[in-house]
Specification:
The complex is a heterodimer. Chain A has helices at 2-10, 12-38, 40-49, 52-58, 68-101, 105-109, 115-147, 155-179, 186-209, 221-224, 227-233, 238-260. By secondary structure, chain A is mainly alpha-helical. In chain A, helix 2 packs antiparallel against helix 5, helix 5 (68-101) packs antiparallel against helix 9 and helix 7 packs antiparallel against helix 8. The two termini of chain B are 31 Å apart. Chain B folds into two domains: 9-224, P-loop containing nucleotide triphosphate hydrolases (Rossmann fold, 3-Layer(aba) Sandwich), CATH 3.40.50.300; 229-284. Chain B contains ten helices and 14 strands. By secondary structure, chain B is of the alpha/beta class. In chain B, the strands form three sheets. A six-stranded mixed β-sheet of chain B has the order 6-7-8-3-9-10, sandwiched between helices. The chains are: A mainly alpha, B alpha/beta. The interface between A and B is medium-sized, with 19 and 27 residues.
Chain lengths: 266, 301
């Protein structure tokens, strides 16, 4: 657990910056919501101006903006899940790569630790980080819903909307963790991670635009945590959560396989 | 120094071979280092010294062959091995954002034994300030920190990869004093270097590695009998006389200067030279490469 605690300590600023920035964003969104909602006509006009495809991307064909959760799901949620996934991909791809990049891995592996222990400590570190990340954003967002006069809303559905991004974040962190084994420098590892997140987000958006591209959405973790879906169902589909956890587990299993036989060359 | 009788091997490799893709790392390396022994591992850069050490520590995996450290297999029992092995890498890199004290504490937590007293002693010996940030340390100071990190858990075997680079002479002396102390208490030391004189003074035995293969494993006493010198003699009138002495391995003449590679009696040579008018005389320690090239030329003839 020694490595785990060191990682928690070493990266807390990185966590705070990202979590607070996104939490404030949500806070601001809910602050402007009441004045938006007061002008229903203007909102509806705004929605009419969007092309149909774009409405689908944001789920506006099925949910209303004149509802605090509908507003949150369409205007704020995507930023949390998208930017949070970028944060997660950077975090996941950095934790292991930086030891080789900064050549500290020799120090670490000269200690009585197995490679499996190194991996589990690092995975645990980003797991805890992503939980904290979503907890901070969740608490601030819930606070904003309570403080500002947003009208009535279902707390349990809000809780689902706040919990859902975590599954995507964890998936991207784990995929980043795996992919970092193929990069010798952490900067290229995290750039690749960011590119990967954006590509898959684009897949999801594209899939809602066109029928031909629909198959693409199954490849994208974003699809499995779709805000409109959660809002309409009133819950996270357990199967979707399981799919993301299974992808993460597969990525981590593969990482373990590769890392156990990896030549550490620095 | 008396050579201890090896009862058990602290390092034992059998046909250890490593290829990096198609590139040669080491080929069929067989080494046996006894308990309490100081063993020198010498060869030019790129010969395979670090490759061998990295396999012993399980940083990299051998292509072929086996290796045991302290009687344990390097692949299967690496964790146990590392409880009792101290390693000083050739290049020292630590977590830049930490202070010396934080890194020492972090390191200590990996071991079950109490390392505090030994750490204090070593900090005093090497005059290291625990409050300093690692990124602000000079190379020499980082190496001192590396030495402390290798020793603080009282290992039974020390593996040192080019240990003296970056240390000033005073600290080198302290370092070797500490090593002598360690050795007296039974710690075996495996130490790689490309500087022959460094190894010559301190080891019981040396292995010479070149292009990935062990050329020879030799007791240092035997090597020491061979005092190789590069001799350069320049003569006043420019005429180079014929000098014939036992121990001249190689000669070369140019511009009134005679170059000899010599391992005979230096007094004999000086007696011969008194019969000639000299403009200059230089005696130099040859490079390791030269010594071994000629040493083995001689062996073969």
């Amino acid at each position: 657990m020694n490595i785990f605690f060191r990682e928690l300590k070493a990266n807390y600023k990185f966590l705070l910056v990202w979590a607070l920035a996104l939490a404030l964003l949500n806070f601001f969104m809910m602050y402007v919501y009441p004045s938006f909602a007061a002008d229903v006509e203007a909102l509806e006009k705004l929605v009419e101006m969007y092309p149909e495809g774009l409405l689908k991307v944001f789920g506006l064909d099925r949910i209303s903006l004149v509802d605090p959760l509908g507003f949150y799901a369409t205007e704020a949620y995507f930023m949390i899940i998208l930017f949070g996934s970028i944060f997660a991909a950077i975090l996941g791809s950095t934790l292991l790569a930086k030891e080789e990049d900064e050549k500290t891995i020799e120090f670490l592996l000269a200690r009585p630790v197995t490679r499996t222990q190194v991996l589990t400590n690092k995975i645990l570190a980003y797991l805890v980080y992503l939980l904290l990340f979503n907890l901070i954003i969740g608490l601030v967002t819930y606070g904003a819903f309570e403080i500002f006069d947003v009208g009535t809303y279902s707390r349990s559905v809000l809780a689902y909307l706040l919990a859902a991004p975590f599954f995507a974040h964890f998936t991207f962190a784990s995929l980043g963790f795996l992919s970092s084994l193929f990069f010798s420098r952490r900067k290229s590892a995290s750039s690749a991670g960011i590119g990967f997140v954006l590509t898959l987000y684009f897949f999801d958006a594209l899939a809602s635009f066109s029928k031909e591209a629909e198959f693409l959405r199954y490849l994208s973790p974003f699809y499995y945590m779709n805000a409109a879906e959660i809002l309409l169902d009133g819950r996270i589909d357990p199967l979707n959560a399981l799919i993301l956890l299974a992808i993460s587990a597969a990525a981590l299993g593969f990482t373990h396989q590769l890392y156990s036989r990896r030549d550490i060359l620095i | 120094m008396q050579e201890p009788v090896p009862t058990r091997y602290v390092i034992e490799t059998r046909d250890l071979t490593k290829y990096y893709g198609k590139n040669r790392g080491i080929i069929d390396v067989n080494l046996q280092v006894g308990e309490g022994e100081i063993f020198g591992f010498i060869g030019p850069n790129g010969a395979g010294k670090s490759t061998t050490i990295r396999i012993l520590l399980n940083f990299i995996f051998p292509t072929r062959g086996t290796a045991k450290v302290l009687g344990m297999d390097v692949l299967r029992e690496s964790r146990k091995i590392k409880r009792q092995v101290g390693y000083l890498p050739g290049e020292v890199d630590y977590y830049e954002e930490m202070t010396v004290g934080e890194l020492l504490e972090y390191t200590t937590r990996f071991y079950e034994t109490d390392c505090r007293r030994r750490t204090e002693e070593l900090l005093e010996t090497f005059e290291l300030d625990t409050r300093r940030k690692i990124h602000a340390l000079s190379l020499g100071t980082k190496r001192k920190l590396g030495i402390i990190l290798a020793l603080l858990h009282k290992p039974r075997l020390l593996i040192l990869d080019e240990p003296t680079g970056g240390l000033d002479p005073l600290m080198q002396k302290r370092f070797f004093d500490v090593l002598r102390e360690e050795q007296k208490q039974g710690t075996a030391i495996f130490f790689s270097s490309h500087i022959l004189s460094e190894v010559q003074k301190r080891c019981h035995r040396v292995a010479i590695i070149k292009e990935g293969r062990i050329l020879k494993i030799e007791e240092i006493e035997k090597l020491r009998g061979n005092q190789f010198r590069n001799v350069r003699i320049s003569f006043k009138n420019g005429n180079i006389p014929d000098i014939d002495l036992p121990g001249i391995i190689h000669r070369e003449k140019e511009n009134g200067t005679l170059r000899l590679f010599f391992n005979g009696d230096i007094n004999e040579l000086l007696r011969v030279l008194t019969h000639h008018e000299l403009a200059g005389l230089w005696l130099e320690e040859p490079t390791l490469e030269e010594v071994f090239m000629h040493y083995y030329e001689k062996d073969e003839s």
